[in-house]
Input
Amino acid sequence: MFLPEILKERKGELMPTYAMLMKWTEQGAKTLKDAPRRLEQATKAYEASGGKVLGYWVTMGEYDILAIGEIPSEEAAAAFALGLSAQGNVTTTTFRMYTPEEFAKLVKMLP
Output
């Protein structure tokens, strides 16, 4: 499923949406055969923290994984990213995503 399709399916009150870009560390690359299990465990941990994984993709290029998810708060997103990085298999870059409607609300707040 492509990202625009995922965002179209969202209904009701939305949790903040985050994208996480990940790169394998040397340790993660050496144990790559175990990566599918780790991705499954990470999904369960994200859901246990109140989040919902909208999708993840293994990618080619500068980053190795792209994950998109909703999670209740900035603190929960930060705690998840820190915990994932602390395991030593990936480094993460996380950023908040805004729908066009959310962006329009932000723009209306400008002076």
Notes: Strands lie at 17-24, 52-58, 65-70, 90-97.
